[in-house]
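Subgroup meeting minutes
Present: P.N., E.W., G.H.
Scribe: E.W.

1. P.N. recapped why we're keeping a running log of single-chain structure predictions: easier to compare across weeks, and new members can see raw inputs and outputs side by side.
2. G.H. added today's entry (193 aa).
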Amino acid sequence: MKSVCLYLGSSPGVRPEYEAVVRQLATLIARRGMTLVYGGGNVGLMGIAANAALEAGGEVIGVIPADIADKEVGHNGLTELQVVDSMHERKMRMAKLSDGIIALPGGLGTLEELFEMLTWSQLGFHNKPIGLVNVAGYYELLLAFLDHMVVERFVKPEHRDLLLMERDPEQLLDRMAVYQPPKIDKWLDLDRS
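Output recorded in log:
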């Protein structure tokens, strides 16, 4: 992996563990020589991740819609800040710039981005590793619900297994580095989607 896309909150959350793990992961990404790709904000966990990677000497690419950047939440100190027209364009651009995806604590936008990437993988639009850092048990209920979806036969076990989960960011990066995608007859080309 040469680049990792992070989905995470524009809020810092209430637990100090969230910030600590985000800093740890962003620093690891930079020290491993990978580019951090994210939503381009300078607030909450998003800003913390960008700043930590930059402080560790890494490259950071932010992708932000113009209407959000205009509200002065765009991060102006990045290696590159790409301003796009819509949220849909933002998500597609972030996906194209990334070799792997990791979700950290966040809100509705984080969940929406994570599940879109899982769906795209399930459908064969990409074969990138998708991970989740379950900081302080933040995603326990979500993971239990995903397991419930398998039991109720709305999600196949192999599709549930597309989501790699670790509590430790370094272990997750190690797993993603050796990720072998599931066998799908034909992977579609994201660039033509």
